[in-house]
Amino acid sequence: MSSIEYVATSDQLLEEVDTYFLYVSGLPVINKDNKCIGVLSKKDRAKAAKGLQSTVGEVMSSPAISLFADKTVKDAAILMLKKKIHRIPIVNEENKLLGIVTRTDIFRALEGQS
Questions:
Q1: What average pLDDT does this structure show over 47-69?
Q2: Which of 6, 7, 56, 91 has a CA between 20 and 30 Å from the CA of residue 17?
């Protein structure tokens, strides 16, 4: 699991979070209680009808497909394959964001097992 460096809120304009995509290909979307409510990817951003003047909430994938922290690398990999997604927010029992698992995290974990 990677720590969270970038997050968005549903009311932010894409213009406000656009520079994050220089560093990541997707980011979790949280509400005021730090609960994960969606994910915003480069693909979502590209579909924005109003371009960078669209809000995150208008284009994000929601609800977020997430996992609890006690799940395994295998659980995350299977979920990514089944849902055809590239990142999974990791949440606690209250759905509060703890971190994120990316394809790179999966590959690194599997590499360490060999």
A1: 95
A2: 91
